[in-house]
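Researcher: I'm preparing a figure for a lab meeting and need a structural model of a single chain. I don't have an experimental structure, so a prediction will have to do for now. The sequence is pasted below. Please return the structure as tokens so I can convert it later.
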Amino acid sequence: MIHLQGKMPDFLHVACSGGVDSMAAVDFLSNKHHTNILFFDHQTETSKEAYKFVARYVGEKQIGIVYGKPRYSKQKSESWEEYWRNERYAFFHSIDAPIVTAHHLDDCVETWLWSSMHGKGKIIPYRNKNVIRPFRLTRKRELELWCNLKNVPFIEDKTNTDTRHIRNYIRHEMMPHALRVNPGIHKTVMKKVKNEYTTRVTI
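Model: Understood. Here is the structure written out token by token.
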């Protein structure tokens, strides 16, 4: 079951890459909200193919799309992951409207595991300026199930299996070992996600 944190505004943008997570978020939210798609082009071949897919989708659904791309070239001191994240959020923050991303509970677990190895476990925050992440209590498998049951189209990003990227290495190589040590790690992190939201709202 898909769970949302917080009340969604009537009009919002959903960051969409064409993958199963963001396509499920678009379809789920568009049932009750006026939804536009926000697409960030990483200027890679994979991203160009994704844009063709997303542009075709919005044309069929007759919904709006806002396109963005990197402002600057990558610096030598930056990793590709860091560069793309910085440019993507610079684009998001330039939009004068609420933006929803499809970050889910599995993302939160991976981020917590990753950051824990650097000294302090961190939770993906509910809000980053105008960007909100209401799907943090939902497992990825629930988003996949939504797309399958509702016949929502999506594409597979081939780079998601490339373990040269740290995020993918944690997802594919480390998570199976973490689950063996603690099969309830998603429940552990879910409590932290709920606490982060409660603390944010009550401050």
